[in-house]
Amino acid sequence: MLKTMRPFTCSGEEFSRVLAALRAGIDPAKLTRELAAQYPSGAGFAGRLVYIASARLWLDDGVPLADVLTMLELRHRFELSPADARAYAVEILWAAQHPVDAVHAQPIPTEKETRYAVA
Q1: I need a surface site. Which of 21, 44, 57, 118 has the fewest CB within 10 A?
Q2: What is the reported pTM?
Q3: Which of 40, 42, 38 is nearest to 17 (CA)?
């Protein structure tokens, strides 16, 4: 029987800690390994968190958007197809540009819900 993975959420405090570590010059690969040790089944989560934080720092430092996209794509050029590497890079870049606190995120109501809502 397959185990279901529990969803990973990232608190703002944890994201801030990763940003601070990257600003302090900690090696991203080392940081990813440390985070993966905290989340035994979350090596992908740890890598994604570090990628998002790295992209955020690059954008804050004034690196052009196209250059950040290229750097993220090149990290996966041997693991994924070119189209998948581009899609993953765009997803990471979007997450870096649109930080959302999962605790405060509200679901977007569907058209049907708004039509039948009682005021």
Answers
A1: 118
A2: 0.70
A3: 38
